Amino acid sequence: MISTIRTIFILVPALALTACAVPQVSEPETVAVRATSLNPAYSSVNAQVLSDAAKVDYSFAASLDPQATANTLTRLQSSYTQQNGDESLRVGDTVSSVGMWGTSVRYGGMQYGTRSDTRDDVIDSNKLASSGMAVLPTVADALFASADEAGTSLSQQNLSVNRSLPSGEQGWNLAVQDALGNSESVAAPMIARTRLVERGCSDFSVGFGKVREDYALTSNSYGPMFANTTVTCGAPLGFTVEAHGEYLADEVGALGFGVARRIGSIGTASVAFAQSNVVNGGSGWMSKVGFEHTNSMFNLMFRSRIQSREFRDIGSMALTDPIMQRDLASVGVNVTERSSLSVAYATQTTWARERTNLIAVKQSMGVGRGTMSMSAGHSLEDNFGSSVFISYKRPFGGIKPLARPMLDDLEELDLQLPQGSGDID
């Protein structure tokens, strides 16, 4: 009996110590591999290793075509991201942030802050190959480049836009052809909504490194030093104040600010101003105003940009005929319970007095259990024609249709890009 009790007193502490010595089994990291494009001529693969606070990201493009003369395997981007609450630190390849104005570029280096996504109207597809500096165009840039304007930033990157296509809930898509001749349908809004923040300056992004060059054409081509900062603060009386700056070594530096405020039920107004200094030239200025309103009956968005001949940001460094004025507008109306009408208009004038005007109209209506959409685009210039698209969507099986077709948000309606003179599709 005494020996049994002695044995128990010996085993209990030993078992307790053994339990403490066994490490806790943590949840393993998640490994995800995704092929975003898969065909013999061009395949894009993305691999990620994910945990609660960190992510390793690697993507590459490969060609299985034995007749291909270009590189059969090209690195697109690779990075490591560490998350700490709302803030994140990213080391490797990333895309710079922009605010009410500015240029998004691909670069390799470091990015830290709470804002990691670029603006909604920026075409940031990681599969589009481009020549030269990897500047990401906006939808508005693509619209005016579709008019075959020589010397645009897209043409200098060997990017081209053939037309926009209907895209269901997204309103419109852009069919973009890259420097390798591959085409991709990209959904993006023509006008991005104004970003409003709460009190404080917790919305920011700081980055520096070297800009990517010949993206998706070569694996490790980097250019000059680059720095970018965007800080957005919520100020008293409901104002949102933003500061943005960007710098490209031996080329250009630009600094500016923006102010936005929601004016009750009237809408949201914004204004921005920036100044640039070019190493080989003088200084210039740019101003931008905007307004947007949304209610249950209609949506309205407007942006206007005016700049001096000398103003340059990173995206317009190589332009021989810079923008003088660019106006974008979009309106959406709920005509009836199951019918909506959207109209978009864009105009641009350069300092060489080259003017481009584009207009698009889209109507959606409920027909039976489905929705019919009719869209038309037209260029007001003499050397371009019009395009018309009609589509019908109907749910099958036991899926219940929507009570009304979804009204395209104004930022989701982009202009129809006419393909040629007098063409009706």
TrEMBL record:
<protein>
    <recommendedName>
        <fullName>Lipoprotein</fullName>
    </recommendedName>
</protein>
<dbReference type="GO" id="GO:0015473">
    <property type="term" value="F:fimbrial usher porin activity"/>
</dbReference>
<feature type="signal peptide">
    <location>
        <begin position="1"/>
        <end position="21"/>
    </location>
</feature>
<keyword id="KW-0732">Signal</keyword>
<dbReference type="GO" id="GO:0009297">
    <property type="term" value="P:pilus assembly"/>
</dbReference>
<dbReference type="GO" id="GO:0009279">
    <property type="term" value="C:cell outer membrane"/>
</dbReference>
<dbReference type="InterPro" id="IPR000015">
    <property type="entry name" value="Fimb_usher"/>
</dbReference>
